Amino acid sequence: MTEFPLRLERYFFTEQQVIANPDYEIADVKHIDFLVDASANRIEGQPGKYGISAKVELNQEKNGNAPYFITITAFGILVIKDEVDPVVAEPHIETSGAQLLTGVIRERLAEMTARGPWGSLYLDFVPITIKIDSNIAD
Hints:
By secondary structure, this protein is of the alpha+beta class. The chain contains one helix and five strands, in the order ββββαβ. Strands 1-4-3-2-5 form a five-stranded mixed β-sheet, with helices on one face.
């Protein structure tokens, strides 16, 4: 098995908000739409380090009867492992970085809503790919 070219240095939440909807009418809600935004940037002055940001929030236009109003944003730092060519590693940042943070947000959302009045809410599969902002120089 080939070793993965990146490592996660750390991650943290920059925004966490879950508000129970007092007007929620218990219904057979099968799907809740979320808006997902993700971005990646080279960290200036630190070659081989990339900042990844992912934000998940309720799509209020499509969810008039949602049990919770949600906004969760996570930020992570990915580092290219020693002796790995950035050209080889960058496609992994673009595909895996946001998915990694989306998984972190998925767990946090379930945890934050577990004791809420309407029960746990889970984030479904989210197909996302990002591009690294090339406007920042190393």
